[in-house]
Write a structure and sequence with these properties.
Strand content: 5-15%
Organism: Thinocorus orbignyianus
Strand order of the largest sheet: 1-2-3-4
Domain Alpha/beta hydrolase fold-3: 8-68
Number of strands: 4
Order of helices and strands: HEHEHHHEHEH
Distance between the termini: 33 Å
CATH superfamily: Alpha/Beta hydrolase fold, catalytic domain
Oligomer: single chain
Helix content: 40-55%
Number of domains: 1
Largest sheet: 4 strands, parallel
CATH topology: Rossmann fold
CATH architecture: 3-Layer(aba) Sandwich
Structural class: alpha/beta
Pfam families: Abhydrolase_3
InterPro entries: AB_hydrolase_3, AB_hydrolase_fold
Number of helices: 7
GO molecular function: monoacylglycerol lipase activity; phosphatidylcholine lysophospholipase activity
Length: 178
């Protein structure tokens, strides 16, 4: 899999869904790695086709793949060694893996919802906050950008935000502002 391949696949899926959706809204919902794919595709649609997706929801996001890789738990022991940045983090760029959500959100104009659990140990919540702040600074209409955190006591971690019974209401309320 490649970053370009993922984006191309989602564009094809978008075209397929759009052809069948009639007047229904289509939003992109990415989780973890998928948040980078969602922002890449939304940006590509906007810049190359002049099409704005109806909304983007990012669950447990990161700013870019390099920063995400520097914070995931598996890299903890390697961070102390010389060359970590070069051998591990820079190798992602050599493989054309960037997933620059932080750059993508600067050009998006569609409603953007960021969801992050405070007890996420895979992608720390400060990456979601940083992405939110980047988007908030860039968006002309600040009301289109929202950040919702879920307290640690809920135990949602990295993978279980979708289990929160309040999530459907939170998303519906967000989509009403569109």
């Amino acid at each position: 899999p490649t970053e370009d391949g993922f984006t191309t696949d989602v564009l094809a899926l978008y075209d397929w869904a759009k052809a069948r959706a009639g007047n229904s809204s289509i939003l992109f919902w990415g989780h973890s790695l998928g948040t980078g794919i969602a922002t890449n595709t939304a940006r590509k649609l906007q810049e190359e086709r002049g099409v704005q997706v109806d909304a983007v929801v990012l669950e447990s996001p990161y700013t870019n793949i390099r920063e995400a890789a520097a914070h995931i738990p598996i890299t903890t022991i390697y961070r102390q060694f010389p060359g970590f940045g070069y051998f591990i983090l820079d190798s992602l760029a050599l493989g054309n893996m960037f997933f620059p959500s932080d750059e993508n959100v600067k050009v998006l104009a569609c409603p953007l919802l960021i969801l992050h659990a405070e007890d996420d140990t895979v992608l720390p919540p400060h990456l979601g906050r940083k992405l939110f702040e980047t988007a908030r600074k860039a968006y002309k209409d600040k009301t289109k950008v929202k950040f919702i955190t879920f307290p640690e006591k809920l135990g949602l971690g990295h993978d279980y935000i979708s289990f929160n019974p309040e999530l459907p209401t939170l998303v519906k309320d967000f989509l009403k502002m569109k």
